[in-house]
């Protein structure tokens, strides 16, 4: 059964606040979106996950045409690319969580699936993690390279930037993002052990 708009906003605010309170989203640089009745609701530019408000969502149609007066996050094209490439996606989360960013800075990663699956849960919750080459955040160059790589994987690490994770709804995206960050933490710690 389709959730109401109010339910989706409530879940989004809860997920955002949880990520912020535990240091997995900082400042005003994270963004999220969800679909409702054929439109994309995306967090407004400059919003903070720690105190996200119900009125801080911009509304765009699936062609990227704005439907209201709230200025969307400058990275809304990343979200739109996910929805167009992944028909099952109903929500997208993008943060700059520490271990995912650390892992994305390593050289020699497999671009089609850059995250080791030391535990089974990443594959169960999300799948393969593509590595998107670095381009300046919010730039057309970033949107172009993301669009080229979006079909090849189930979730993505933007190199030197952070994860982009979809789900059928915001809570599924939240659980998948949690698993990706935990997998990156485990991989980082094991890398240190292996280097000793």
TrEMBL record:
It comes from the Bacteria. GO terms for cellular component: cytosol. It comes from Rossellomorea aquimaris. This is Aldolase. Transmembrane segments: none annotated. InterPro entries: Aldolase_class_II_sugar_metab, Aldolase_II/adducin_N, Aldolase_II/adducin_N_sf. The lineage of its organism: Bacteria, Bacillati, Bacillota, Bacilli, Bacillales. The keyword Phosphoprotein does not apply. Residues 10-188 form the Class II aldolase/adducin N-terminal domain. Keywords: Lyase, Metal-binding.
């Amino acid at each position: 059964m389709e959730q109401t708009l109010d339910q989706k906003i409530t879940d989004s605010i809860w997920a955002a606040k949880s990520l912020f309170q535990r240091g997995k989203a900082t400042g005003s640089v994270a963004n999220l979106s969800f679909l409702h009745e054929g439109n994309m609701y995306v967090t407004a530019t400059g919003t903070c996950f720690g105190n996200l408000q119900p009125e801080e969502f911009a509304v765009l149609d699936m062609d990227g045409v704005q439907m209201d007066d709230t200025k969307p996050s400058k990275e809304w094209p990343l979200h739109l690319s996910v929805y167009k490439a992944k028909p099952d996606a109903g929500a997208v989360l993008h943060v700059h969580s520490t271990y995912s960013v650390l892992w994305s800075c390593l050289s020699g990663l497999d671009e089609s699936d850059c995250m080791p699956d030391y535990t089974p849960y990443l594959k169960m919750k999300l799948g393969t993690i593509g590595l998107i080459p670095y381009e300046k955040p919010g730039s057309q160059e970033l949107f172009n390279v993301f669009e080229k790589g979006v079909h090849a994987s189930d979730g993505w690490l933007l190199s030197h930037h952070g994860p982009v994770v979809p789900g059928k709804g915001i809570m599924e995206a939240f659980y998948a993002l949690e698993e990706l960050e935990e997998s990156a933490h485990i991989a980082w710690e094991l890398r240190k052990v292996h280097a000793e």
